[in-house]
Amino acid sequence: MAVHDEVRPGLSPWRMVVGLGLVSLLVDMVSDGAMSVGGAFLGELGASAALVGLVTGGASAIALALRLATGPWADRTGAYWGFTIGGYALSVVSVPLLAATPLLGGAALAVGCALVLVERTGKAVRAPAKTVLLAEPATAVGKGKGFGVHKLLDQVGAFAGPLLVAAIAAATGRYAPAFLALLVPGLAAMALLFWLRARVPDVRVYRPRAAAPAVPRPAAGLRALPTAVRVRFWLFAAFAALTTFGLLGPGIISYHVAREQLVPPAVVPLVFALGMAVAAVAAPLTGWLYDHRGPRVLAAVPVVTAFVPALALGGSLRAVLVGVALWGAATGVQDSTVKALVADLVPPEQRGSAYGSFSVFQGGAAFAGAAAAGALYGRFGVLSVLVGVAQVVALGVLFAVLRRPHAPVEERDE
Q1: Domain 15-195+223-402, second-level architecture
Q2: Domain ranges (residues) in the chain
Q3: What is the distance between the alpha carbons of residues 286 and 409, in angstroms, rounded to a whole number?
Q4: How many C-beta neighbours within 10 Å does residue 211 have?
Q5: What is the distance between the alpha carbons of residues 326 and 318, in angstroms, rounded to a whole number?
Q6: The pTM is what?
């Protein structure tokens, strides 16, 4: 529908940012609670390191690469709320079902792997649409701050979920009851999401009111962008892919911690929680820096990422904890600022397509990184050199992106 001057949002921009952040907090308790022990759980079901790398890397790839379809689809239909709700529902349902997999005998591993993939499919369905919903109120308060605060809440959930899983695993000696308990925050998230949808059915009300006449929605897709903008966008996507490759993925890290028995099984989620806690601090800080210093803050990502493999897959608990902390820092910086820069590069009506296309690069890199970590498990020197070279190239690509002055796109009113 067209947005008119007399239309007022049912929630202020900050309340909408926080509301969507609380939804992410609750669902990340579900998703990251399961992810914190995903590799270890699959290992208990009989998976090898290579299979864990393929499944968790494939899950990350699905969560990102499928956005190439769901992003433009959301743009064409305008059903951003529908995609967001449907995607969250897939994650909320699939994780508790993991509790039943140990009862399935010979089918347990196959079903467990399938549910991990389904959960990440939910991420692919909702992510572009949810980011479009968030971008409008975030733009009204400052993109870096808006995305940074959202990421902070997101990371609080990513920290709390593993804590809940650890507590239940310590009390019961099993991971399965923890998966079932994660249904509670999942249902709370769905209730809040429907409430937000009822209060703000169209997030375009957050756009600045202008006296100029409304302009029609352009065709979905990135081909309509000026060539210089497209080139900068694809270079930035390549940078994000190279850094994502070096982050390996939490599945192989939790598998390593469990396999080497660096901590008791119930403590494995707490190792993941450390990374989430660091990301929770890094996200709003770098979001603020982005608003004040621009996208140059992203140069920290490849520098930090270069040290992740040798430490996170090291032989001592101290090295692993340092590596996980660096992994969390890089994740927090990347997640809070990457989306903000994409929103600056691409007009609002094409952001779904942009986030979808962008995620294909990250998805392929996530799969390649996790698969490489699984295949080279135990050969950390080779893996570290491979990741280090990728990060040097990433810095060069980022410098190419930043050669031109940073100029946010003009917000259009409809």
Answers
A1: Up-down Bundle (1.20)
A2: 15-195+223-402
A3: 21
A4: 6
A5: 13
A6: 0.69
